[in-house]
Amino acid sequence: MKAPCQALVLEDDPEQLERVAAVIRQAGLEPILTRSPSQALTKLHYYHPVLAVVDLDMSLAPSGPRSVDDLLQYLHERCGGCCVLVYSVGAEHIGERKRVESVHPLALFVSKQDGPEVLVDRIRRTIGVRYGDLSVRRGLVFHEPSGEVYGHHVGVSLLMGAALGQEVVLNDSEAKAARRMRTWLARVGSGVQILDYGRRHYALHLAEDGG
User: Fold this and answer.
1) 16 inside domain
2) Residue 11, by phi and psi: left (phi above 0), alpha (psi -120 to 50) or beta?
3) Which end of the chain is more exposed for a tag (fewer CB within 10 A), N or C?
4) Helix, strand, or coil here: 78?
């Protein structure tokens, strides 16, 4: 079995960091734990998470030159295959949401005031998606009729994007993985296709819909 997909976690409070990590593991993902935006940005040079859980309040974070906005901007511009989930006390405030959306327009929100159970549910719904005859389980893409598995994180990103009705922006290496997935889909006889919209924008499409 392939290694699970990864989730970046930015949380300045060590105790809450471990709680969120446990939630991530429950969802079948490997957590990448960071306590400051600078640490998170450094990790993104080496890892390719499909999910980022970001706290906005960095009052307990180790000092560093980068801000949460720097991280959100990097995730938006350079990590198009990563779904961003803002998990913060400020997530329930409209003004704060609009400010975050001005940096990362596709960010999702869960308030810490709602408790960890709501975070667990949101992550499971975000990760445990289905599209056509494909599904994500334990961080892997399954072709339900054949039981075949596609293990690259790009497959999970594309399914998550399809569930949210979003195109996914991939880098050159990820675009190659998307092309390999296209070959895999044809081999297993899936009714799902990968569409290339140009400029590294990709999305899943149900073949029976036509067009």
Assistant:
1) yes
2) beta
3) C
4) helix
Please state the pTM of the whole predicted model: 0.85
Cβ burial, residue 138 (10 Å; 0-12/13-18/19+): middle
What H or E segment, with its residue span, contains residue 100?
helix 94-103
Identify whether residues 120 and 42 lie together within a single domain.
yes
pLDDT tens for 123-175 read 888 888 899 999 998 788 999 999 999 989 999 999 999 988 888 988 888 89
CB neighbours of 108 closer than 8 A, spacing ≥ 6? 83, 84, 85, 86, 122, 126
In single-letter form, the type of residue at position 117 comes to E
Structure tokens at 83: 């779904």
Concatenated DSSP letters of 4-68? PPEEEEE-SSHHHHHHHHHHHHHTT-EEEEESSHHHHHHHTTT---SEEEE-S--TTSPP-S--H
Structure tokens at 39: 């640490």
- Same-domain check for residues 134 and 159: yes
